[in-house]
Design goal:
Strand order of the largest sheet: 1-2-4-3
Number of strands: 4
Strand content: under 5%
Largest sheet: 4 strands, mixed
Number of helices: 41
Helix content: 55-70%
Radius of gyration: 30 Å
Structural class: mainly alpha
Distance between the termini: 36 Å
Length: 865
DNA sequence: TTAGGGTTAG
């Protein structure tokens, strides 16, 4: 799979990992083969090595460089784990689906399971503090309460109990007052230090990392903060807020103060890698450093490493880590299993996930509500909604109560399907169980109704939410702004945006990406480019999602030149170094909405903005490359979709050819198939298809849809059919066909049309083998690829045209306008007609004959669309 | 010091 063409214009190697073959070293002297004693249990060294050692040759080198194996023979470095993926493609192409980490964290998880040595007076004080809390955020009553109790409370244990319990109830300002009170009355530094670490930990748990930092800084200045505990607590606080860089800075400071990091410190750091999305390499380095310093990893270390894998989509690595745990005699717990399951689910390995889940009871670890949430979400993402819903029943049957997350998950599934009655009834059940709807619940409903264009309902829910005194958050606002923009309700979008600003909330990359996407979908590339500038100036780096949205906007119509300035601004190589101060005059979002709302009201010709040449994509791609934003499979699909919207074969083929310089495997396949060089690229194509199969079903089907659409569009119809059959064979679309039914829903029109031909040919061979066809034959189109959009019958119309053009006897079913039916007898008769085979067999317009000549098939063979 | 939910690209 090595590239025949070197990447261009580049000093970095960011694309080369697409081409690197794996190094299968066969070193007999690999450290794994020489493991001897194991620190946990003597007997583990007698056990068989884990299957990976038996089944695979010793793994090749990885990126980390370390000498820890020599300093710690008990615990080899993780760099001896097998490669994280067998893929020849880079992990970037397959991509992690989420680019936001911080908001995925949920703060306020109560601290449980610690043995507290507090007195009953402390409990009494807590109950009084809670009972008398006021709604207006005024926590001053706790001061007098503490004064009353100070003689009954017996030292640090009581105060740390109060801090933790107030923290568990979200009462951080009361906790802060309690902390100030306790520190003031304490003279012993080490006791003050304990209070400070507890306070930092409590604040970190609640996501108040800036406040935690203040407590820490004060503690250091006042001479009781320079402890491993305080540093570890601060590292953990940054970890919980997803601030990996900050965690590492604190860690470095800690070392420069000659404090020796311990197991908790290292675990918190690895946790920070997971939550901050730092990638496995960094976590692995920290792990190695830990070993080098003689700190032995434990269950939590491995659980946190697993979480890193799950976050960045390294399923294979997660599996290997799990084996490593077993091999090392480190016991697994429910966290281990849930995290492993999460890694499997996000790696699209649902079957494996179910297998793992079924093994849990044999290890005496019973699935809990977290396990079920993970599995349900995995099923839902993989498009197995029936399975997701049945898991809820299984869960109830197993006597596991649905909690807030489970209810919200279930509700979100229904809302995303537009099944609002069921969504609302889940909401009611949830409330009847004493769980109030929260921001997440409302965000799911707003998104669901918004996607269906039910704007009145959106407005109603938004005010209902505020009526419940729930505070809309960043996601609420970005959902609403995107919904309104896509619906062309720019005035509403602007109002929501103003409210968002008044709240003092800060936009992030997802906020901008979502808005850019919405504007791109309206063909407003110019405005999108403006926003791209603005976000960069604000110090918010666009990511692959942002650019994918922009790429999607190209080729919407191939008639208009790129407006002056757009490309320059999209492609300019150096983003502004100076961050802009925020003020309204400078706010592009307001300007844009203002203008659009005005145009809207005088019915201006906004559609004229649509239409960019797809050759511009090359510039955008180059810009991504310069910014080291790695294109992924969605970028690929977006580019192919742009090609399908372009009528110029030359432009499309040139674009793909140029893109080969960036990634020869991926774009080489697309280009080769387009040019009719099937024999040359088919092996590469098959391995690309195998890679895509590893992704979740919607990503995979988007890939096949885009590729077949493009091939069909440019007349490479036999090629399109071969591709679509590969997709079918890999179960990209579920239950595609039987002798009696062809299900085309979730397919693009190109994929669907190629599939109809293939299915009819298959049926024909059934007939010619002398078998009888079923009495009734159906072709289902659903609502096409955008099946969530009510009333979008593009696919249905394309299939109808195709069937009529072939003279096939299928007709729209009376009871279901998305279904074409015919009788077996009629279809048999038609298939036996002389001319039928000819219209069924697809041809390619272009065949590559080894030289640069094109072989065009004669026009009389043309099959009508 | 460890696990699950909301958002973006198709």
């Amino acid at each position: 799979m090595a590239s025949s063409t070197p990447p261009p214009l580049t000093t970095t190697k960011s694309y080369q990992n697409h081409h690197l073959p794996h190094h299968h070293h066969n070193h007999q002297t690999h450290p794994h083969n020489h493991r001897q004693s194991v620190h946990h249990h003597q007997w583990t060294s007698l056990k068989k090595p884990p299957p990976r050692h038996a089944a695979k040759p010793p793994p090749g080198p990885t990126t980390t460089t370390t000498t820890s194996t020599s300093t710690n023979p008990n615990f080899p470095s993780l760099s001896s784990l097998p490669p994280s993926t067998k893929s020849d493609l880079s992990a970037d192409f397959s991509g992690r689906r989420s680019t936001r980490f911080v908001s995925k964290l949920h703060f306020g998880r109560p601290k449980t399971g610690f043995a507290s040595r507090h007195t009953s007076s402390a409990e009494e004080a807590l109950h009084l503090a809670i009972r008398h809390r006021s709604d207006d955020n005024n926590s001053s009553h706790i001061d007098s309460l503490l004064l009353n109790f100070q003689h009954k409370l017996s030292g640090t244990d009581d105060y740390t109990f109060l801090l933790r319990e107030l923290g568990n109830r979200g009462e951080y300002s009361m906790a802060m007052r309690c902390f100030d009170f306790a520190v003031r009355r304490e003279r012993r530094r080490n006791e003050q230090g304990k209070l400070a670490s507890t306070m930092i930990s409590v604040l970190g748990r609640l996501g108040k990392v800036d406040l935690a930092r203040k407590v820490f800084d004060t503690a250091v200045v006042e001479g009781y903060g320079n402890t491993v505990y305080a540093y570890s607590a601060l590292i953990s606080a940054y970890a919980k807020s997803g601030c990996c860089d900050e965690s590492i800075k604190v860690f470095e400071t800690m070392k420069s103060c000659n404090l020796k990091p311990n197991l908790v410190t290292y675990n918190a750091l690895i946790d920070a890698c997971g939550k901050g999305g730092a990638g496995f390499d960094l976590a692995s380095e920290i792990f190695d450093e830990m070993l080098g310093n003689g700190v032995q990893p434990d269950r939590i270390t491995f659980n946190s490493l697993l979480a890193v894998c799950s976050g960045v989509g390294l399923w294979e690595t997660a599996r290997n880590l799990f084996s490593e745990m077993v091999y090392r005699g480190i016991e697994q717990d429910i966290y281990t299993y849930n995290t492993l399951l999460d890694a499997a689910c996000s790696g699209g390995q649902m079957d494996v996930a179910f297998e793992i889940m079924s093994e849990m009871p044999t290890k005496h670890i019973l699935p809990n509500e977290v396990t079920y949430s993970i599995m349900i979400r995995g099923c839902a993402k993989a498009g197995r909604l029936d399975k997701a819903l049945s898991l809820f029943n299984e869960m109830k049957f197993a006597g596991i109560n649905l909690d807030r997350v489970s209810y919200n998950t279930l509700l979100a599934i229904y809302a995303s399907l537009g099944r609002f009655e069921e969504a609302l009834s889940v909401g009611n059940e949830m409330e009847s169980m004493g769980i109030k709807k929260d921001v997440v619940t409302y965000n799911a409903l707003l998104d669901g109704y918004g996607k269906q264009g039910k704007y009145d309902k959106v407005k109603e829910l938004f005010s209902e939410m505020k009526g419940e005194r729930l505070s809309p958050n960043l996601l609420t606002y970005s959902t609403l702004i995107s919904v309104y923009s896509k619906g062309g309700l720019y005035k509403d979008a602007m109002e929501v945006y103003n409210e968002f600003k008044q709240k003092g909330l800060k936009a992030d990359v997802v906020f901008y990406s979502k808005l850019i996407d919405a504007l791109c979908k309206k063909g407003l590339v110019e405005s999108s480019a403006l926003l791209l500038d603005e976000m960069t100036e604000k110090g918010i780096q666009p990511n692959v999602v942002t650019y994918n949205s922009i790429i999607n906007a190209f080729g919407q119509s191939a008639t208009v030149e790129c407006p002056d300035g757009i490309i320059e601004s999209l492609v300019q190589s150096s983003p502004s170094v100076f961050f802009r101060e925020e003020n309204d005059e400078d706010d592009s979002i307001i300007k844009i909405f203002d203008e659009l709302a005005a145009e809207n009201s005088c019915h201006s010709k906004q559609d004229n903005r649509i239409g960019q040449e797809i050759s511009c994509i090359l510039g955008v791609f180059q810009k991504m490359h310069n910014l080291r934003i790695k294109p992924n499979v969605v970028t690929f699909s977006a580019i192919l979709n742009a090609c399908s919207r372009c009528n110029s074969f030359e432009e499309a083929s040139m674009l793909l050819e140029e893109l080969r310089l960036f990634d020869n495997q991926v774009y080489g396949v697309a280009h080769g198939l387009l040019m009719g060089q099937r024999e040359n690229v088919w092996m590469q194509a098959l391995s690309l298809f195998d890679e895509v199969k590893q992704m979740d079903s919607s990503t995979a089907s988007a890939f096949y849809n885009a590729l077949t659409d493009m091939l069909w569009h440019f007349g490479q119809r036999q090629g399109a059919q071969l591709v679509v059959l590969e997709g079918k064979q890999r179960h990209v679309w579920e239950n595609t066909w039987s002798d009696s039914c062809l299900d085309l829903h979730l397919m693009s029109s190109g994929a669907a049309r190629a599939m109809v031909h293939a299915w009819l040919l298959n049926i024909r061979s059934v007939v010619f083998e002398g078998q009888e066809l079923p009495k009734l034959l159906s072709i289902l189109t659903g609502w096409g690829k955008h099946s969530k959009v009510v009333g979008d019958g593009t696919l249905k119309r394309a299939i109808e045209t195709l069937l009529v053009g072939m003279g096939a006897p299928f007709r729209v079913a009376q009871c279901n306008i998305g279904r074409f039916t015919s009788t077996g007898a009629l279809v048999t008769a038609w298939l036996r007609e002389l001319g039928t085979l000819k219209v069924l067999i697809l041809h390619d317009d272009r065949k590559y004959t080894g030289t640069a000549t094109l072989e065009l098939r004669p026009p009389f063979q043309t099959i009508p669309l």
